């Protein structure tokens, strides 16, 4: 077998993440209305809610079968729809979970390049039989998400207006807010975020299919490390089963924050990226999950 090297010629690196795309994604997209107090609590203060009385949660669970930068992997994500910064509107991601052969490269490239709040988990299962689909996400021995949907129609009519154009061959723009930051040591050796950058992540999704569905059940086990259940389900809105390809059109800087305003963001960004073991003096986990 040919061995690699810790030195790679610079010209070869011009191909690094060039034309990054998540091709042939297949899986579930699930939407619900959550508690307004919860949505405001977890959303960084620099962002507003377009509809503060009826905040919506967006979640997805897909097999990314042909990423351009890694072997296939499974990915699950959860965030708040309808966030706004000045004239920009989009999604604020709380957390993404990854598993499978390409998960490590998917995690590292997403976190280091874009600031996506990604973690590794033990298991993501998405299955479909005829018109019934089921998803499970397990992280650190907790079943942080489980749902069942039925293909046919949405739970609420409001969903129809937002997804009427997702026919085979259609393309749709996507936009989300992400934070990148620099960690350094402050007074008394405390870690601080010296500065932070708010990025606008601009993407496009090309659809092979989008099948409306109703949510039959959702359950989320509480977890100190992966608190998806904080985004409690107040009203199921609907779901879909889709095959699509997603690619990054570009990222741009929306704002830069420094000193206290930057450091205060750590309270909002920590749980999506790190575990409680990094801030506790007593921690242990035994066995294989």
From TrEMBL:
Report the superkingdom from the record.
Archaea
Name the InterPro entries for this protein: Acetoacetate_decarboxylase, ADC_dom_sf
Task: Tell me a Gene Ontology molecular-function term this record carries.
Answer: lyase activity
List, alphabetically, the Pfam families matched. Answer: ADC
Parts of the chain that traverse the membrane: none
This one is known as: Acetoacetate decarboxylase
Q: Which organism is it from?
A: Methanothrix soehngenii (strain ATCC 5969 / DSM 3671 / JCM 10134 / NBRC 103675 / OCM 69 / GP-6) (Methanosaeta concilii)
């Amino acid at each position: 077998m040919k061995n690699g090297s810790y030195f790679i010629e610079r010209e070869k690196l011009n191909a690094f993440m060039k034309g990054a795309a998540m091709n042939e994604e297949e899986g579930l997209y699930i939407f619900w209305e959550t508690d307004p107090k919860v949505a405001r609590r977890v959303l960084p203060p620099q962002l507003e809610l377009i509809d503060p009385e009826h905040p919506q949660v967006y979640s997805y669970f897909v097999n990314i079968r042909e990423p351009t930068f890694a072997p296939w992997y499974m990915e699950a994500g959860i965030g708040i729809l309808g966030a706004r910064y000045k004239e920009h509107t989009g999604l604020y991601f709380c957390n993404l979970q990854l598993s499978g052969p390409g998960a490590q490269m998917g995690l590292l490239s997403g976190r280091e390049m874009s600031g996506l709040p990604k973690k590794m988990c033990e298991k993501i299962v998405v299955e479909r039989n005829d018109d019934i689909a089921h998803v499970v996400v397990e992280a650190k021995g907790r079943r942080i998400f489980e749902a069942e949907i039925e293909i046919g129609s949405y739970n609420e009519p409001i969903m129809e207006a937002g997804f009427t154009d997702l026919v085979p061959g259609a393309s749709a723009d996507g936009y989300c807010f992400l934070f990148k930051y620099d960690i350094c040591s402050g007074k008394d050796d405390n870690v601080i975020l010296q500065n932070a950058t708010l990025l606008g992540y601009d993407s496009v999704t090309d659809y092979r299919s989008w099948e409306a569905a109703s949510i039959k059940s959702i359950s989320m086990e509480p977890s100190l490390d992966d608190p998806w259940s904080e985004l409690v389900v107040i009203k199921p809105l609907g779901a879909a089963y889709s095959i699509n390809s997603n690619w990054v059109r570009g990222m741009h800087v929306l704002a830069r924050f420094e000193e206290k305003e930057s450091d205060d963001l750590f309270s909002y960004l920590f749980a999506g990226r790190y575990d409680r073991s990094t801030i506790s003096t007593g921690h242990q986990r035994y066995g294989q999950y």
